[in-house]
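Sequence in, structure out.
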Amino acid sequence: MNRPKKRDQRGFRPLEHTADRSIEAWAPTLPELFCAAAEGMFSESAKCSQVAREHEWSIQVQAASLEDLLHAWLSELLWIAERDEAVLCRFEIADLQQADEGPCRVRGAARGGPVPTDSPHTGAPVKAVTYHGLRVWQQDDLWRTRLVFDV
């Protein structure tokens, strides 16, 4: 298995999966991990270089654990993209609170624009984020996650 190295500060890579899409994402901080996971989720849907980033959406979600919070963050992004028929390409986290007791919270933003009419989907669009194998952990000074998406 090809593992990301420490010098790969933030990123994602596809993983083999029999029916759905799967990625592994990594970053030096939790906020950057949430952004890398979002980039990975939308990476095969459209070419971001062809999307006008004219709109910004604010996102706030909370959940009981980091895994639930990542799931809620990505699910909210999918809902926005579907509702507004948009491609989301740039993600920022303003605040992420990890809690031992009480909810974890994330507040951030996504930027993007309408689906380009001359640029069809480059891959199967993600329909949902699953909990199958969802895990968030820290290893070698990097935060990591593995995700499976229904397509």
